[in-house]
Design brief:
By secondary structure, the chain is mainly α. The chain has four helices and no strands. The protein has one domain. Helix content is 71%, strand content 0%. The chain is globular.
Length: 97
């Protein structure tokens, strides 16, 4: 099983690229993505600050699940939007494993 710290290393660099672009492209028609970006930014800061320790992210992942309807991808978005939700969902699952 992949641990949160392993996934964090793999996914955070992709998310750093995708999240701002998706917010710019889809933020107008999907205003909830601005909340996704804010929560991702909080997760990123906490994960970096924690180093190899486990960060406390229960609240952020709970809010992400609410905002994204459990990472349900809207039908009118690009592959990058879908990738962001998939990567965040994998991080969430690994965090709670």
């Amino acid at each position: 099983m992949t641990t949160f710290n392993q996934l964090k290393e793999q996914h955070m660099s992709k998310l750093e690229l995708y999240v701002p672009v998706v917010a710019r492209v889809h933020g107008g028609s999907h205003p909830e993505f601005h909340d996704v970006r804010r929560l991702y930014d909080q997760i990123s800061v906490k994960a970096k600050a924690a180093g190899s320790e486990r960060p406390k992210l229960d609240e952020e992942f709970e809010q992400l699940r609410q905002v994204t309807d459990n990472y349900a991808v809207p039908g009118d978005v690009c592959e990058s939007y879908e990738a962001v939700y998939d990567l965040l969902a994998e991080l969430d699952k690994a965090y709670h494993a």
